[in-house]
Design goal:
Elements lengths: L14 H14 L12 H8 L3 H14 L31 H24 L6 H19 L5 H14 L3 H9 L1 H13 L3 H23 L3 H20 L6
Helix pairs in contact: 1-3, 2-3, 4-6, 4-9, 4-10, 5-6, 5-9, 6-7, 6-8, 8-10, 9-10
Length: 245
C-alpha cells in the first residue's frame, strides 16, 4: 500500500508531525478556524490527503500543547465534600492516542466500581447523594437540550455518581481525572458535524438514563454493565466509529 502523502509539503519521517505542523501553521495564519466547517476530521483528512488516525493524533498533540484551546473546559478542581478532602491525585497529561486509550481503560475500572457501589448500597446511603446524582443528570440533559457545551455538565454527572458511592477514594480519583475527562469529551465533540453531535448527544443521554435507572433499581450488575458499555462507547466516539473493533 503506498504511503500517505501531502501535496505541497516536504516529506518527513513522521507523517503525524507533518500534519501537526501544517494544521498549526494554518490556524496561526487564519486559514483554518477551530470550530468551522473546514475543521472537522473529515475535512482535514481531505485537505491533507491523510487518514483519520493521522489527523486525530495531530489534533491531540495540538490540544495538549494549547494551540487548540478547549471551549468551556472548566479545568479547576472543585472542593471535595466535608470529610472527603483526602487529596487529589495527579496524572500525566494526555498527549497521544495511546494515552487516551490508557485513560479510558483506567476510567472504566474506576467508574464501574463506583456505580456498582451506588447500586449495591442504595438503601443504606444518604438519600442526599442519590438526589444530587439525579439533579446532575437532569442538569446535563438541560445543558444538552439548550445546545450548549455540556462537557462540564457531563463530568459533574459522573462525579456525582462517585460521591453517591459513599467512597471518598472514588471521588478523589475522579477529581484527579477532571482535566483528562474534559479533554476527551471535548475532543469527541469538537471535530464532528452538527448532525453527528446531535446523534451522539442522544446516544449519550440514553446511556446516562440507563445508568441512573440501574442505580435507583439497586441493580449492581446492571449498573456496572451499563457503565462499562457507556465508557466503551465514549472511547469509540473519540477514536471514531471505524475504530470500534
Amino acid at each position: 500500500m503506498p504511503a500517505e502523502v501531502m501535496p505541497g509539503l516536504v516529506r518527513r519521517s513522521n507523517l503525524v508531525d507533518m500534519v501537526h505542523d501544517a494544521i498549526e501553521a494554518a490556524v496561526r495564519c487564519g486559514e483554518l478556524q477551530a470550530g468551522g466547517c473546514q475543521f472537522t476530521e473529515a475535512a482535514l483528512c481531505r485537505k491533507f490527503n491523510v487518514s483519520r488516525p493521522t489527523v486525530r493524533e495531530a489534533l491531540i498533540r495540538l490540544r495538549a500543547r494549547g494551540t487548540l484551546a478547549h471551549r468551556g473546559n472548566g479545568t479547576s478542581a472543585a472542593a471535595a465534600p466535608p470529610g472527603q478532602a483526602i487529596g487529589i491525585p495527579s496524572y500525566r497529561t494526555l498527549t497521544s492516542i495511546a494515552d487516551i486509550g490508557v485513560y479510558f481503560d483506567f476510567r472504566r475500572t474506576i467508574e464501574v466500581g463506583a456505580v456498582g457501589q451506588c447500586a449495591l448500597h442504595r438503601d443504606h446511603r444518604d438519600a442526599w447523594g442519590l438526589a444530587k446524582m439525579e439533579t446532575a443528570f437532569h442538569e446535563l440533559r438541560a445543558a444538552t437540550e439548550c445546545g450548549g457545551a455540556s462537557a462540564e455538565a457531563d463530568f459533574r454527572f459522573h462525579l456525582a455518581i462517585a460521591r453517591a458511592s459513599g467512597n471518598a477514594m472514588f471521588v478523589s480519583v475522579m477529581e484527579g481525572l477532571r482535566s483528562h475527562a474534559l479533554f476527551a469529551m471535548n475532543l469527541s465533540r469538537q471535530f464532528k458535524h452538527q448532525h453527528e453531535r446531535m446523534q451522539h448527544s442522544a446516544d449519550i443521554d440514553t446511556e446516562h438514563r440507563m445508568i441512573v435507572e440501574a442505580i435507583l433499581d439497586g441493580d449492581e450488575r446492571g449498573a456496572g454493565a451499563t457503565m462499562q458499555a457507556h465508557i466503551g462507547n465514549a472511547a469509540a466516539r473519540v477514536f471514531g466509529e471505524a475504530d470500534k473493533a
